[in-house]
Amino acid sequence: MTQSLLISVRLHDARWHGAGEWPPSPARLFQALIAGIGACGTLAPEHVQALGWLESLPPPTIAAPPAPAGQGFVTFVPNNDLDAVGGDPSRTAEIRAGKTIRPRFIEGDPALRYVWRLDVAADDEACARFVSEIAQALYQFGRGVDMAWATADVLSQEEAEARLAAWSGRIWRPSDEAAAGGVTLRCPMPGTLQSLMDRHADQRRRIVGGVFRKPREARFRLVAYNCPPDRLLLELRPADDGRRFQPWPLSRAAELATTVRDAAARRLPAADVGAATVERFFVGRGCNGTDKSRRVRIIPLPSIGYAHTEPSIRRILVERPPDCPIPLPALDLSLSNLSLSRHDPETGQIPSPELPVLAPAADASMLGHYGIGDHPTSRVWNSVTPVALPIARLRGRTCGSRRLANEAEAAHAVRQALRHADVAGAVESVRVQQEPLFAKGVRAEAFAAGSRFTPDKLWHVEITFSQAVRGPVVIGDGRYCGLGIMAPSASQHHRDVLILPIVGSRPDVAHRGAVVSALRRALMSRAADDEGRVPTLFSGHEVGPSPARSGQHRHVYLLAEDADVDGLLDRLIVIAPWRVDRTVRPNAEQRARFEGVVSAVHVVRAGAAGVLRLDQPCSPSDHDPLFQSASGWVSRTPYRPTQHPSRSTDPEAAALRDLAAECLRRGLPQPHVEIRRINVGPRGGISAEACLRFAIGIMGPILLGRDAHQGGGLFVRER
Question: For residue 469, what are the contacts with CB-CB under 8 A and spacing of at least 6?
Fold first, then answer.
């Protein structure tokens, strides 16, 4: 029988002073339980068994009340460093350190609930009973001033879900990935209890023999938690119900959102919602920066997805944040069968039958075209309705430099708009323009009618993220009135060069070969299927141990670079073969496979070079000399010919012929080759440093020769 363990924590005051997270993580609750039961001394064996059972359970569901962050303040307390002032207590004021305190103000009942699902067996029932005893010993939750108490109950699955459904705050559930608005919380795992006991023992003997020893870190696992908003999808239907839809013009999206907002606001007070709450969290009048994330958002959804679709507005999506004080039933009641026409009591005018009525949508497939729900995420997003920015577009004829500066300011404003809209993800590039970004779109200035924005402050935007982002993406100053609605691009741009920055400890350049070999092993491990087979794209081999002998270079090129020339490697570069060998023609599956596998590598274990931790992959910048366009290219790493020269051949002439032939094999034009330095090994092997000059500009990268796939034969733009 499936049951649930419910631990309820109630705070004494409606404030919480814990730092860095909301809701409080399950790891914080686990530590508070140990602190409560361990205040009297060592833990009893039955309590150790119960806590060990609790840490082995899957991550719990968390029910937390709304708790906006308050105004922070700094208090100055003595630092634990009296030796710095000669041990004189009277000089304590000289070693005071600032401590920032920013409490959260809990709205409503100051209680939290943690629900674990479990299959109750005989041993589980005993452990659950001991967990109930441990919960009764909890006395604080957060910092020392956050006094609290807790209870634990074992309920049926139906009763636990009923209590969560009746919860008026936010429900946080564990998920595979943190979506927009989600958080990553620490959770206990097998071994957490022992690690906390070891850390407590280390804290008691930090100084042994006059030497300070850092206590061991506690072990937790990171779990993504999401709290998706409530969504209502409505259709615009004619008042006479003569046909299914009553389309609304795309250019009047702002007018539609405002009309729906005002009409629903007139009905909400009748649903037991205070007028002040409606004005603040639905209409938006009088709301501050903290309230914006709790406002109801009305998003008109133009019909898109097919080339011949007329992009009129036939549906409206209404999003209610989980901590919005307007109840979902009241919001649903105010929007259902809502007529957008208004009877004028002074003139007695009858509502126009041409204005539509809102009705619940029968089909939600249109949400997929905006990246909402379980649909695939996207890296490239285009605006369907223009984004309202504080930067005005230049009018009339302007010089190129002024226009570029104006568009650069607008692109910077787009990045700020993403931050204000809580759209997570690093941005690779932003393109702004006045023209629409799809075939039947409308120019940006046409959307100014019916809105509060001037035409010169409306921009169509294309945003490329480093990682895929899930919808909806609505940004800009007009995101609450139908503007700034974005959709995934129909033509996704797969990246064929990915730069993996090294964060933390960096290896010496002497370990370049070991790092490249470790990166290749990491890519092969990620690309292997269930049977252990690795595609040629990452292995360089056909099926089996034999190398690929098609004559084309069909596997990835790997580089370990010291970009700032300080003797330490700071980035790894993975280049798709079709970017270097112009004769290779990839398909869409290979492009997607390349980006997906490389983006999944976050740690490279390189033996003596150490463990390399990698940041999010990104594309090369426009100023990177390896990837610019130029007619002159010089060696950065020596070129090794593809064929071993005979002893009777002049080494310089052999290198020159081999290098020219290699350029032709890679699909490059015939260059003028200048050998600047030649090295001959003890067995006749040669390596050369050269300069290539083409008749036209060639886009990098250029890697040639026998060891090109490991970073050899790399050329850089000639300065």
Answer: 180, 371, 377, 378, 379, 381, 423, 424, 425
Distances (CA, A) of 92 to 73, 74, 620: 21, 18, 51
pLDDT tens for residues 305-341?
877 788 899 999 999 887 788 888 888 888 888 888 7
Which of 418, 367, 373, 376 lies closest to 596, judged by CA?
376
Please name which of 617, 582, 532 lies closest in space to residue 702, comparing C-alpha atoms.
Answer: 582
* Residue whose C-alpha is closest to residue 556's, from 579, 576, 585: 576
Angle at 612 between CA 609 and CA 618, to 5 degrees: 135
Q: Spell out the alpha helix ranges (H) of 111-252.
A: 122-136, 157-165, 192-204
* Alpha-carbon gap, residue 524 to 533, rounded angstroms: 9
CA distance from start to end of the chain: 73
Q: How far apart are CA 247 and CA 238, in angstroms?
A: 9
d(CA 449, CA 452): 8
CB 557 within 8 A of CB 580: yes
Instruction: Band the pLDDT of 180: cuts 50, 70, 90.
Output: low
- Cβ contact 417:507 at 8 Å: no
Global pTM? Answer: 0.68
* pLDDT at residue 245 tops 90: no
Sign for the pseudo-dihedral over CA of 521, 527, 532, 533: negative
**Ramachandran category for residue 540: left, alpha or beta (phi over 0 → left; psi -120 to 50 → alpha):** left
The DSSP letter of residue 337 is: T
At 177, the pLDDT band (50, 70, 90 cuts) reads: low
Type and span of the H or E element at 404: helix 400-420
Prior bond of 701 cis (ω within 30°): yes
Q: Is the peptide bond before 472 cis (omega within 30 degrees of 0)?
A: yes
What is the crossing angle of helices 26-37 and 45-55, to 10°?
A: 180
% helix, strand, coil for the chain, step of 5: 30, 30, 45
Spatial separation of the C-alpha atoms in residues 188 and 59, rounded to whole Å: 8
Contact 347, 273 (CB under 8 A): no
The answer for 702, left when phi > 0, alpha when psi is -120 to 50, beta otherwise, is beta
Task: Say if residue 360 is preceded by a cis peptide, omega within 30 of 0.
Answer: no
Q: How many residues does the chain have?
A: 719
Please give the helix or strand (H or E) that residue 573 lies within, else none. strand 571-575
Report the 10 Å Cβ neighbour count for 502.
20
**Which pLDDT tens digit goes with each residue over 596-640?**
889 889 899 988 888 999 988 888 887 888 988 899 999 999 999
Gyration radius (Cα) of the chain, Å: 32
Cβ atoms of 138 and 36 within 8 Å: the answer is: yes
Q: Which pLDDT score, from 0 to 100, does residue 242 have?
A: 64
Dihedral angle sign, alpha carbons of residues 628, 629, 630, 636: positive
* Strands, E assignment, 275-367: 297-302, 313-320, 357-360
